[in-house]
Design brief:
By secondary structure, the chain is mainly alpha-helical. The protein has eight helices and three strands; from the N terminus they run H-H-H-E-H-H-E-E-H-H-H.
């Protein structure tokens, strides 16, 4: 049997550690995302929204009428995912889609009165989520900043289509 130098064994051990599931940052982020999804399902149930629908509503509450293309960019959703989402929000009476008067090719998502009114009921959602994390406000801000930097670095390494 051939003996390997101690450094080669340490490198091998380190490589094996890198391949452990519990050592994967992507898995930790995925597990956290799934946990958030479960919590949001419960918290948003009373509003009649799914998490992706809630994200659309957040953009519209913040910015008002928004081109569908811009919604997709902000939410990092392709049109094949966004279109059915908007269709369900429209069927629920929360938004309507309107063609731009300036550019017929552009469609805007616009809040209805009912959609705008839902904002008040949704105001408690971020507080409930923040409380559930067990983090204080400074920890949440730090985590969000770190995740923003991580996202930017990953986007730079593998740009979106």
């Amino acid at each position: 049997m051939t003996e390997q130098p101690a450094t080669a064994l340490r490198d091998q051990d380190r490589d094996q550690d890198f391949l452990r599931l519990d050592g994967q940052i992507c898995f930790a982020l995925n597990a956290a995302t799934r946990a958030f999804g479960g919590l949001y399902r419960v918290v948003l149930k009373d509003l009649g929204l799914t998490y992706p629908q809630y994200l659309v509503m957040l953009v519209l509450w913040e910015h008002g009428s928004t081109p569908v293309k811009e919604l997709g960019l902000r939410l990092r959703l392709d049109s094949g995912t966004l279109s059915p989402l908007l269709k369900r929000l429209e069927a629920a009476g929360l938004i309507r889609r309107e063609r731009s008067t300036r550019d017929e090719r552009s469609v805007h998502a616009v809040l209805t009165e009912e959609g705008a009114a839902l904002r008040e009921r949704a105001a408690e959602v971020p507080r409930r989520i923040a409380t559930a994390t067990g983090f204080d406000l400074e920890e949440l801000r730090d985590l969000k900043a770190r995740l923003g930097r991580l996202t930017a670095a990953l986007d730079a390494a593998a740009p979106l289509d």
